[in-house]
Amino acid sequence: MNLSQLEQEIISDRWSFLDNAVYTPVNGGTSNTVYLVDTATAQFILKFYSPTVSDSQINYEHSLLRILQQSSLSFKIPAPIPTQDNQTLVAIETKQQNYRIALLPKLSGKTLDRQNDKQIYAAGLTLGELHHKLILFDSNGKLAQLPAWGNLSKIHHLIQKPQNLPQILNLGLEEELLLRKMVDRLIEIVPCLYADLPQQTIHADYISANILVEENIVAGILDFEYATYDLRLLDFLGSLAELASVPWRCTNFKDRVRNFSQGYQKNMILNSLEIEAIPIVWQLQKISTLIYWTGCLLENKAQRSHVTDAVMDTLKFQSYLKDFTKLISM
User: Of the candidates 118, 125, 117, which has an alpha carbon nearest to the alpha carbon of residue 261?
Assistant: First the structure.
């Protein structure tokens, strides 16, 4: 959508340096509407939050970014720019619609190239640094607004019984039995994982689209909207799953896993319990993601082929888990 003259005037009233700015719609992902904002001296990102994102989650994200902004980091983060009255989340009311917006700096850099081994290593290095910094933010998880990924019944409001996942997807009998077995085992073992493994604030969406690089070094990290308090290992494996893909589709899969893991452990060491738990936590990450995308499928926001392909990849990868764990622990 294009911003009306009235909307632009309301925005420039809150951030006076945006007077006469030019607004260009850009791809903001599946949840939010995003504009590139050009002024005579700088560029910014104007983010319109989806109605599905709560004020409390936005404020949590902004608080986290402000804390990171005060830290000594080797990379940039999109900390929200306050208005003249020191607000970072602004409500706009018009006759047509109500909006919630935030103004962010436009970070420099290009999206990470998954074919570049040096960038994969740099991504691991930077995630380790980020985890090290986030340990002190909300250290007991009392501020987090989103449910833990291990709380399978809370991942998506349309999938309140994860045991029903195989039936919803209408899989073949063999695949249905295998997936059901995996879900049942996870439901049983998840409490033990959360009792034994390190938890902290995590990014929860550390994928190539949110990692900006310059000269094979991570220059910026985007999109902290899904940040929450959860298993540290889940963030590590979720990122690795996207960056490395799967062995039968990625010729340099082992190199990606090894490079990312070695980079990460320069700044944050996985302990022995985490190493031992990699196979089951990897399954948890995959099943949590499947539940989320199955819910999106029921909302007509995802393609069935995308979800069923993810199921097949999850089941097929079971035979690789032993070697996968060895690569990470090397």
Answer: 125
3-class SS of residue 76 = strand
Provide the pLDDT for residue 93: 84
Q: Where in the chain is the domain with CATH 3.30.200.20?
A: 5-105
Range 34-58 average pLDDT = 95
Q: What is the pLDDT of residues 306-329, one digit of tens each?
A: 999 999 999 999 989 988 999 998
In order of 54, 256, 294, the CA distances from 160 in angstroms are 20, 35, 12
Q: Which residues contact 73 (CB under 8 A, 6 or more apart)?
A: 129, 133
Residue 231 parent element (H or E)? strand 228-231
In words, the CATH class of domain 110-329 is: alpha beta
* Rounded distance between C-alpha atoms, residue 13 and residue 304, angstroms: 45
Q: From CA 330, how far away is CA 292, in angstroms rounded? A: 32
CB 37 within 8 A of CB 18: yes
**What stretch of H or E contains 322?**
helix 321-329
Answer for the pair 82, 17: CB distance below 8 angstroms, yes or no.
no
Tell me the C-alpha distance between 112 and 217, whole Å.
Answer: 9
3 state DSSP class of 71: coil
CATH 3.90.1200.10 residue ranges of the chain are 110-329
Q: 3-state class of 278 per DSSP?
A: helix
> 225-258 pLDDT, tens per residue?
999 999 999 999 999 999 999 998 888 999 999 9
Amino acid of residue 116: N
5-105 belongs to which CATH class? alpha beta
Helix, coil or strand: residue 243: helix
Q: How many CB atoms lie within 10 A of CB 215?
A: 9
Are 59 and 138 within 8 A, CB to CB? no
Max CA distance (Å), the chain:
62
